[in-house]
Design goal:
370 residues, alpha+beta
């Protein structure tokens, strides 16, 4: 969220609190029974609403206590319940149903106590109870709607990511198929041409004959074609990462995941195999966190020691240690990469909740010989 968006949100919350307070104060002024202390209670109960996003339970407590005290002292009309109604709605929307219901009951008890002697008190009390019930229900409905929207967005992001991964996988498979075809067909033919041209040049020089310029050109062109073909095959077979773990973390933040990256030790360049494995491990761990951990916080740690690189990706999601997940393709591929490098991998739910991925990769692994 940008600074402008945060400022606009704070301004909207403050405006809501001021409007609610102005309405209740206007009703109190018309009633002609409010004292300066009552106006102060109204101001406290209403202006507290400006902080409902960051502290909904505290706002609910302050609004309920201040407004109930005002009701018990001044015996106002039903409009005095507006700050508590707003606080109950926002608390229910934040998931605090029990606290919101308790606050509603406390305020209603205070209001009924002061309204017993008035005519039509039962009707007003029932009407007010209906308002509080609506505040609770609409808060819960709004919470469920927001959860539905988040799930819809996550499904759309997952579908897009799956399509991208499938497209990348198909592209990689096609590159490998082309590389095999080129190797099986062209490499053999060019090698034969180069070999035959080389033999002809050797025999001509051995007999003391002048070597034909065309033959020399064929020999040179064959060698150049072989070098170009090897370079092309190398490009087609390459499966290098498209970034760094830091870039993966930035992408995850942009997608809405709360991720923090910590690097310890003496950071240094890695061999291609270790670098590729580290990238893929962090990528898969963040992908799983985005898919299964929900709105959780994720901590990515890279620790460089003289002999190994330790990668730890922990989230505080809802994974349960008593129900370990069934390893899918991602975790299986991650374990295969680590095992191929002689490292170790631990991927399981944490005792305190959430999921943990820890990989230890030995450093100094020699490059693959092609």
């Amino acid at each position: 969220m940008t600074l402008d968006q945060v400022t606009r949100r704070h301004l909207a919350d403050t405006t809501l609190a001021v409007v609610v307070g102005a309405l209740v104060m206007t009703a109190a002024a018309i009633d002609h029974r409010a004292t300066p202390a009552d106006y102060a209670l109204i101001a406290v109960g209403s202006l507290a609403l400006a902080a409902y996003r960051c502290a909904p339970r505290r706002v609910l407590a302050v609004s309920t206590v201040a407004t109930t005290a005002y009701v018990l002292h001044a015996h106002p009309g039903t409009l005095a319940a507006l700050p508590v109604l707003s606080a109950v709605h926002t608390a229910a929307r934040a998931g605090h149903r029990g606290v919101a219901a308790l606050a509603s009951a406390l305020f209603l008890a205070g209001f009924v106590t002061t309204d017993l002697a008035a005519r039509g008190s039962a009707e007003r009390s029932l009407l007010l109870a209906g308002w509080f019930l609506c505040a609770l229900v609409t808060g819960l409905a709004d919470r469920n709607w927001q959860a539905y929207l988040r799930q819809t967005e996550q499904r759309a992001m997952e579908a897009e990511r799956t399509r991208e991964e499938a497209a990348l996988r198909r592209a990689g498979e096609e590159r490998l198929r082309i590389a095999r075809e080129l190797h099986d067909s062209l490499t053999h033919s060019i090698s034969i041409v180069k070999l035959q041209a080389g033999v002809a040049v050797h025999l001509a020089r051995k007999r003391g004959e002048e070597v034909s310029p065309a033959l020399l050109a064929i020999q040179e062109a064959g060698g150049e074609a072989m070098r170009e073909l090897r370079a092309t095959l190398g490009v087609l077979r390459t499966d290098e990462p498209t970034g760094t773990p830091a870039l993966l973390v930035e992408r995850a933040r942009a997608a809405g995941l709360a991720v923090e990256l910590t690097v310890n030790g003496d950071e240094r360049p890695l061999t291609a195999t270790v670098d590729r494995a580290a990238y893929r491990i962090v990528q898969e761990a963040l992908t799983n966190a985005a898919r299964h951990a929900g709105p959780a916080k994720v901590a990515v740690q890279l620790h460089y020691s003289p002999d190994e690189l330790t990668i730890a990706v922990d989230d505080d999601g809802g994974a349960d240690p008593s129900c370990p997940p069934t390893p899918g393709i991602g975790l299986t591929g991650m374990r295969e990469r680590v095992t191929a490098l002689g490292g170790t991998l631990h991927a399981a739910p944490r005792t305190e909740g959430g999921f943990s991925v820890r990989a230890e990769l030995p450093l100094g692994i020699p490059e693959e010989v092609s």
